[in-house]
Amino acid sequence: xxxxxxxxxxxxxxxxxxxxxxxxxxxxxxxxxxxxxxxxxxxxxxxxxxxxxxxxxxxxxxxxxxxxxxxxxxxxxxxxxxxxxxxxxxxxxxxxxxxxxxxxxxxxxxxxxxxxxxxxxxxxxxxxxxxxxxxxxxxxxxxxxxxxxxxxxxxxxxxxxxxxxxxxxxxxxxxxxxxxxxxxxxxxxxxxxxxxxxxxxxxxxxxxxxxxxxxxxxxxxxxxxxxxxxxxxxxxxxxxxxxxxxxxxxxxxxxxxxxxxxxxxxxxxxxxxxxxxxxxxxxxxxxxxxxxxxxxxxxxxxxxxxxxxxxxxxxxxxxxxxxxxxxxxxxxxxxxxxxxxxxxxxxxxxxxxxxxxxxxxxxxxxxxxxxxxxxxxxxxxxxxxxxxxxxxxxxxxxxxxxxxxxxxxxxxxxxxxxxxxxxxxxxxxxxxxxxxxxxxxxxxxxxxxxxxxxxxxxxxxxxxxxxxxxxxxxxxxxxxxxxxxxxxxxxxxxxxxxxxxxxxxxxxxxxxxxxxxxxxxxxxxxxxxxxxxxxxxxxxxxxxxxxxxxxxxxxxxxxxxxxxxxxxxxxxxxxxxxxxxxxxxxxxxxxxxxxxxxxxxxxx
Length: 604
Ligand code: M6R
Description:
By secondary structure, the protein is an alpha/beta fold. The chain has three domains: 3-233, 4-Layer Sandwich (Glutamine Phosphoribosylpyrophosphate, subunit 1, domain 1); 244-440, 3-Layer(aba) Sandwich (Rossmann fold), CATH 3.40.50; 446-589, Glucose-6-phosphate isomerase like protein, domain 1 (Rossmann fold), CATH 3.40.50. Strands 3-2-4-1-10-9-11-15 form an eight-stranded antiparallel beta sheet, covered by helices on one side. Strand 9 (176-179) and strand 10 form a beta hairpin. Helix 7 (256-264) runs antiparallel to helix 14 (423-445) and helix 10 (324-331) packs parallel to helix 11 (349-360). The longest helix is centred in the C-terminal third of the chain and has 23 residues, at 423-445. It is globular and about 75 Å long. It starts with a strand and ends in an 18-residue tail after the last helix.
């Protein structure tokens, strides 16, 4: 939800800002702008992609500047509403990510005092408040402006009269400082600055920072200077580039054999038949809780839901699934539950609020995230990283399968801790885990077959996905992938539920993707496929390699290599991702940046 960037150093700021913004555009892409100080403050903005803005920036001078890529919340997509916003004397420029809840009152008050507004955004009040308090010191003015603001913000500010200073602040929206040699950065997210530095300092809620080219200072909300340690990010810049793939999403789908391998690294020990987590996590898992709440949103919610089946199956511990946006208001139960929050970005506003709600209710909290240093990893009692490398495509792919894998490892660990399984069984599962990268490569090799099926469904107006047990949340995820990138209406259902209502929507033009695994529900799923076929729509079955029956029941079959075990959900997920990708590609959709969406949803 909006990406912000700030630069101070020795390079040409416009080029640096544009380059960094291009790496942040998955956070929002309806308009963009930069503000640069080259003696005078100069601001350039435009609607649409960052490439539009790039063409309209006539200068490449100045070594201090800020930039923004927008996902509109308040005010339409117009050049006026694009950031940076400037104060009336045009000396201060500001970019902001978040929502100012009391902006209407503040705006009325400022207008009464004579301030002229040029946009409909909530953000513009901040720059006028800073101007109102400005007395020769930008940090002080930002401090006093922020005291009047309610809501969330990550912001970067510059002042024409202080050309050696870049000021940032955050509350409930992400902001990281990137440390270079004789240059420093502010960014919403690490991939933005990865080609310049992998040294980061994270700001906590309520903190403010002031950067020069050679120094960084961090202050708490009482203006007390604090020391903050650096984190070294071990992501490679190549991970954040397309590397010859037409889309990040396809690249990230193809990265899964390696992402899975990385997720297992340092955790799964075949010889010792053991699963190892950091001490803090082991302590959380050893505690005496009698249930688990999994809280998350979107794809991470479906990964959590798959995790629920895995944990319940291996440990017998009841797992309650809670959408973070609901849990934060209605779901908190006092008592001995472990709250597991699943979040790729670690910055999703609803998930952060759910973690805080869990903590306030006295629960221990554990986060599964892909981003080290993200807010979620810092506010929870412990965290496990998915270790899948940066994910840029708005549609989550490799992090979905890695999240499932981490939840499976948690399930295994808990099963051992609670004496539910013996070492032999652990060993059997470890072998299954180690076989996964090869199985995924086999699925990826079948991409052309999936393109053929995608060709048959690309013209549909609606597609249903059905499955039972662990394949039910997979159906929901398959449908979410298709709708978010191809704009075809898609729904996932528990296979037994079609006859309780959804059948009314089924026509000959509604392809049904049925996940049929050789488990206890197989015969029932075949029966459900029969019920569908009796009504005319084509059925695409996703079935395992050893299934000799399925061809008799389905119109098309996509096969996955079978391990016959709990982990077939992972190759199946990859098939569903490829299907969605190829349908969207055949329809010519904007795959990495679907309309109205943003990768990281940092507003409620
Ligand atoms: O960063 P998070 O995992 O917390 O994000 C949650 C959802 O916003 C995210 O999974 C979203 O549903 C994806 N666009 C799905 O592909």
